[in-house]
Every structure is written in structure tokens, then in C-alpha cells.
TrEMBL record:
<feature type="domain" description="Pyruvate carboxyltransferase">
    <location>
        <begin position="7"/>
        <end position="274"/>
    </location>
</feature>
<dbReference type="Pfam" id="PF00682">
    <property type="entry name" value="HMGL-like"/>
</dbReference>
<comment type="similarity">
    <text>Belongs to the HMG-CoA lyase family.</text>
</comment>
<keyword id="KW-0479">Metal-binding</keyword>
<protein>
    <submittedName>
        <fullName>Hydroxymethylglutaryl-CoA lyase</fullName>
    </submittedName>
</protein>
<keyword id="KW-0456">Lyase</keyword>
<dbReference type="GO" id="GO:0016829">
    <property type="term" value="F:lyase activity"/>
</dbReference>
<dbReference type="InterPro" id="IPR000891">
    <property type="entry name" value="PYR_CT"/>
</dbReference>
<dbReference type="InterPro" id="IPR013785">
    <property type="entry name" value="Aldolase_TIM"/>
</dbReference>
<dbReference type="InterPro" id="IPR043594">
    <property type="entry name" value="HMGL"/>
</dbReference>
Amino acid sequence: MRQPPAIHIREVTPRDGLQAEPRIVATSDKVALTEMLVDAGFTHVNVTSFVSPTAVPQMADGAEVLQRVRRRPGVVLDVSVPNAKGAARAVEAGVDAVSVFVSASDEASRKNVRRGREEALAGVLEAVSVAVDGGLPVIGTIANAFGSPYGDTVSLDVVLQIAGRLVDQGVSSVTLGDTSGEAVPPQILKWVSALTAEYPELPVALHLHDSRGSALANTVAAMDAGVTRFDSAMGGLGGSPYTKDASGNLCTEDLISLCERSGIATGVRLQDAVRISRFCAELVGRELPGRTARLGAEPQPSAGVSS
């Protein structure tokens, strides 16, 4: 197995982690959460999304959250946008980067944004153009890249075609999203290897969900394929409110624990991650699915790493 010396975590709790939660989190708490993440050492946070408040009520205060969060050198605060209008708002708000998404599954696209894959992609490409013209780097996320919960097949060829169109439009990086936890390690290795072979200079990231308990195993497979960029959320929070089986994200503190015990640097202390995860559990009013925060953050011996 190829093991990187370090990985980069894009923390998505304030946006993807909270977006489907029924309890509306106060604006001040969202600001405090983002500040805690940055204080803990995270240098990239997906803060909010500029979407219809009717569609996603939890994100209705996105602009205010972004305005109130203290900006710091070396820290990227990005905003997810669904279309060109959202991208224009992001440019006006002075964010550090924009994140767009399109589903590789035609059926999932229709369920999520009420448009087929090609029509949705055309709208996303418009959003990319607006952001790029506004001087912002763009993260292009391909949702359902490894499979669909609706029975339609997602092929590697389709994923590569979408990635190519995003790259041609000017995205800075491409993230493969396992939106409903369909992926298995051999598929992760195959998909990532094909994408990096096609675009060797393109930064590639993984956005993994843990619907079937495979997120950490898929993370290790992605590292073996050379990936060093991962999205994750505290306590395994998250999931799309419009996608079947889109349960929580790859758990941040579980990922950090795995890395610490494997000799892989993350730039974030496990104790800080556990503390923030427990704060998130208080915000949403329930126990979170992540394991490490329940076990505690006491140092554990590393098995098989060194002698």
C-alpha cells in the first residue's frame, strides 16, 4: 500500500454536515463552529451554500454566516452553489472559492435538482464560468460518481466525460463524490487511477459517505491511488436531503484517528476534533454516528507501522 506522509482535509460540517438537520442551528453557533474548526488547524472549510432558503432552510443564513466569520490568511472558506446566480452571489460576497456539483447519475440528478444530467451539467458549467470570470477557484464535484441509489448504472466513462467538461470550463480541482455510499475499495482505486491518468496535473479529492460503512476503507484505497485530499464532517454528520441513502459523511475524527495511528499528518490534533464533534452533537441534539468521539481521544498504539 502507498501511504502519503500527509493528507489535506476539507471540513464540510458547516454546510454538508448541517444541511439536512431538522433542528435549525443558530447563526451564532454556525459562526462559532467555523471559528473552532479554523482554530483547530483546518485550513479549508466548506462554510455554507447559496441556495433557495425554501429548498434548504438550514442554509438560509449563509450570507450572514460568511460575513461574520473572521477571515484569516492561509484559510480557504468556500461556498457551494447550484447555479450561475449562486456563483454571482459568491463572487459578490468575496469568498475564497466556489464549489459546484453535478450528478453522474441521470436519475439521481432528476431526483435532486429536477433536471437530467446533461441539462444540470449545462447549468453547472455556467456557474463555473461566472466564478472563474470573478477570479475564484472552483471545486467541481461529481456526485454519485461510483453508483446510484436509484438503480441506474454509473459508468467510469461518464465520470471521465463530466470531469473533462469541468476541466475544460476551468475548474481548479475535481472531487469524486460517493453520495450514497455505493463505492468499494477496488472501484475507488480504478476510478481514481483512470482520472489521474487522464489528467495527471489535476488535483483530485474524494467526498465519501458512510451509508454502508465503507468510508474509511475507501479512504485507504484512495490513498493507495495517490489521493491526499478528502472531505469529511465532524461525527459523520451530513447527507443530502434529496438523495436516497445519502447518510453521513466520512467522519473527521475517525479519519484523523486513523491517520495519527498510521503516521500520516493531518495538521489537526485529535483532541480538538473530538471536542468539536461533541459540540456538534449538542448543536443538533443527538448522538452522532462517529466512533472516536465516543471512545475518547487518548493516544492509541500504532499497529504494524513501526517497531
